[in-house]
Amino acid sequence: MGKKISYALNFILFYGLIFPLSLLPLRVIYIFTDFLYLILRFIFPYRKKIILKNISNSFPDQTKKEQLTIQSKFYRHFTDLLAESIKNISISKTELKKRFKFNNLEVMNALYDKNKNVILVSGHYNNWEWMITSQALALKHHSIGIGMPLKNGFWDKALNARRGRFGMTIGSSANINKLFENEQTPFATLLLSDQSPGDERKSFWTDFLNQPTPVIFGCEYLAHQYNHSVVYFEIVKVKRGCYEVNFKLICENPKGLQWGEITKKHTKLLEKTILNAPEFWLWSHNRWKKAVPKDLETLQEKQKISFENKFN
């Protein structure tokens, strides 16, 4: 009975409130989130301690005032992102194409012409939700998105259905092999690599934003396992509600690259993106909750040997 009630409440919330709200013009939705900005910024500061800790550790040479400026701008962008995520549920192809544009598609087209599958990698920076929804509209490659399923099954199914309505196939790490095996044409797999990993001992440790950081190794592992090209994508905010995507080839053929080379490259590219405009990264995520393993050097040597035995 409890599950039925929970499902009914989620159904009413999504189809009775969120979906109808998404049908409003974006400028109207911004009015609601402008009010929310004031609440999250001044009345009930959202994850204030985590945000300030992340910013201060990432920018130790900045003054407290400069760090607080990033925090304030982040709250502004975060509430804009909430409005745009709501709009994403029902946004039309025409409006999405106007608001989310792709530059230098020749990078992806060249790989498609060579029949190369691609891993598209970046982080939770600017509007990644619109990237998920619009990827299939812009690329010749068939689009696949890999992410962590939401704990709430109703919302996971409902949101993924809306995200994939223009042609993207949504999956998870649990069924990624099956997804790849079923593809008959070149495909591009979207990965966001900057979340805190589940197991720090299976991660690749590197310096990121002035801190030792565990990075999920999935991008590099999949690239070597399936011989996929790797492309970094950067989302640039042009103005409120408008973005552009730029592509940068990391490698066309991963074979022969050293352990950690791909991970270091895409992590450094994301770091450069963040440093250029830090307010657009997801500072509210508890990114650095994992402790550095005491036997890190030994662990890294084992990881390297295992990698080389498998791929070299």
- Main sheet: strand order: 1-9-8-2-5-3-4
Order of helices and strands: HHHHHEHEHEHEHEEEHEEHH
What's the number of domains?
Answer: 1
Number of strands: 9
What fraction, in percent, of the residue positions are helical?
40-55%
As a whole number of angstroms, the C-alpha radius of gyration is 20 Å
Q: What would you call the structural class?
A: alpha/beta
Classify the beta-strand content into a percent band.
15-25%
**Termini separation (Å)?**
55 Å
The main β sheet shows up as:
7 strands, mixed
Global outline:
globular
Mean pLDDT level: 95
Spans of at least 5 consecutive residues whose pLDDT stays below 50 are: none
Number of helices: 12
Q: Please, could you describe this protein's structure?
A:
The structure is a single chain. The protein has 312 residues and is α/β, with parallel strands linked by helices. It has one domain (2-288). The protein has twelve helices and nine strands. A seven-stranded mixed sheet has the order 1-9-8-2-5-3-4, sandwiched between helices. A hairpin with a 2-residue loop joins strand 8 (229-239) and strand 9. Helix 1 packs across helix 4 (64-88) and helix 2 (26-43) runs antiparallel to helix 4. 34% of the residues are buried.
